[in-house]
Amino acid sequence: MKKRQGRLHLAVIGGVLLFFIISGYVVAAEVLKSSYSPVVMKEPLAQTMNQMKNAKKGIMQRQMDLLNERYDLSNRPAKGVMMSGGKKAVQEGVRVKLPAGVTWEQLAAMAPEEIQEKGLWPQGFYPLPHPNHPEGGMVFPKYHIEEIKKQEGRDLTRFDLDYDLPEHFLPEYPPPIYLTTRPDLGDVSKGNVVTIMNYFDLFNGILNPKQIEGLRLLVTPFPQQQFNQTDDRRSELPHRGVTCFDCHVNGHTNSATHLVGDIRPQEFRHGLDTPPLRGVNIQRLFGSQRALKSVEDFTEFEQRAAYFDGDPVIGTKKGVNILDRGSQVHFMAEFQALLDFPPAPKLNIYGKLDPKKATESELRGQELFFNKAQCAVCHPAPYYSDNLMHNLKAERFFKPRMINGRMASADGPIKTFPLRGIKDSPPYLHDRRLMTLEDTVEFFNLIQGLNLTTQEKKDMVDFLRTL
Q1: What is the pLDDT of residues 147-205, one digit of tens each?
Q2: DSSP bridge pairs for 246
Q3: For the chain, which has fewer Cβ within 10 Å, the N-terminal or C-terminal residue?
Q4: CA dist 107 to 70, 116, 357, 380, Å?
Q5: First to last CA, the chain
Q6: 13 pLDDT band (50/70/90 cuts)?
């Protein structure tokens, strides 16, 4: 009798559940939002890996469709304009595609409210999502993955996604290394990608012992959110981790991308463009929005939190690298502070053009930069940064919208990045949304309401290439 009652009771429950399901009600427990990453996985890694491998093609196709819809991705190098190492040409031309039936001049004549109301903000000026924004994490260009695998046997391939931007829009590889202490040596990397395998041979006799130890730590792999030993990694095999120089290759950048760790929820996290470490000795703010006050703060924060999406709880599981502030952090920061900007032979000691070396277009561009275009308000000479934060309020021009898992809305204040050596570090803006300097000039022409002419835009680009 009791068994029958039990079966009847279960049948009633099942009927109620069925009723709710048929009626369209959700009967599962409410999923609560959390600032924390899950620590205990609910399924085996092999199952997760299989699911993500199967989804990878569709995810990458969605991202490439977005890029092709936004940009002209063709390979169009500027004639005779090379990055400082002389191995790679700078890409030229506006690559952001305009909305149908409108010109740049027509857009520039409109008020922000009109552009927003008519939905005419160019798609390439919206925030650029991570290749898989809901998932996030570090993603490296293919050529860097291949080089590290060749030198160290360490594989930075992710089983769930690949890097998205074409190689011709990225910095030259490997980039040169210039030292503030030994400008007479030129490129001290001698054309090598500096790793744990060669750093000592390259720098012994050039650096002091503290600096060599700092460099060793910068090229030593440590666990990171996607590359570690645990069952929630995104590498096929258990992994030693990543190095600081996996993103900041040779103290510069390869434009590896990630998501900032300081924003929740996920759809509001900004995509990240890895900035150069060149010239950190003159910088006073670090992190695009965190406003960390020293390179020591930045170095320690990266290891303790940024490597793990800003979540030290998950870092404890994966193997957070606790650096000693008084020695290891100091040594790493001391080496980073030696990384110099590339040579700029047309600039004088005040960081401005020598009229005897510059072209007419470059001189006109400099005049615009310091006057009509008001660039120097945030980017004063000689290093072209004011070491402050500024809010461009780009959201004046568009209504919030979801783009591939990224909610395009207000960015908030962003630190002023130095423009010295700017031609060496495409793509541009804090989230890689601008492919070329021409795109950047068009973006700020609208943001600032400058109404630059076609010739003035060209002159501006010519000047920026001299920095």
Answers
A1: 999 999 999 999 999 999 999 999 999 999 999 999 999 999 999 999 999 999 999 99
A2: none
A3: N
A4: 17, 11, 36, 28
A5: 89
A6: very low
Q: Is 446 helix (H, G, I), strand (E, B) or coil?
A: helix
DSSP codes, 220-270: S-B--SSSSSSTT-SSSS----B-HHHHSGGGS----EEE-SS--SGGGPP
% of the chain exceeding 90 in pLDDT: 90
The 10s digit of each residue's pLDDT in 71-113 is 999 999 999 999 999 999 999 999 999 999 999 999 999 999 9
**CATH assignment of 77-129+344-464, given 3.40.50.1400, 1.10.760.10, 3.40.50.720, 3.30.200.20?**
1.10.760.10
- Give the tokens for residue 210: 């503290």
Q: Is the pLDDT of residue 18 over 70?
A: no
Phi, psi of 235 (to 5 degrees): -105, 145
Distance of alpha carbon 42 from alpha carbon 217, whole angstroms:
35
User: C-alpha distances in angstroms, 61 versus 57, 68, 250?
Assistant: 6, 10, 31
- The per-residue pLDDT for range 148-159, each reduced to its tens digit, is 999 999 999 999
pLDDT higher for 26 or 361? 361
Tokens of 276: 């150069």
Contacts of 156 (CB under 8 A, 6+ apart): 140, 144, 145, 148, 149, 227, 235, 242, 246
8 A C-beta contact, residue 197 and residue 152: yes
Structure tokens at 118: 């008519």
CATH 1.10.760.10 domain position(s) in the chain: 77-129+344-464
Place of tokens 């898989």: 132
Q: Which residues contact 49 (CB under 8 A, 6 or more apart)?
A: 159, 236
Report the 10 Å Cβ neighbour count for 110: 17
DSSP 49-89: HHHHHHHHHHHHHHHHHHHHHHB-----EEEEEE-TTSSSE
* pLDDT reported for residue 30: 60
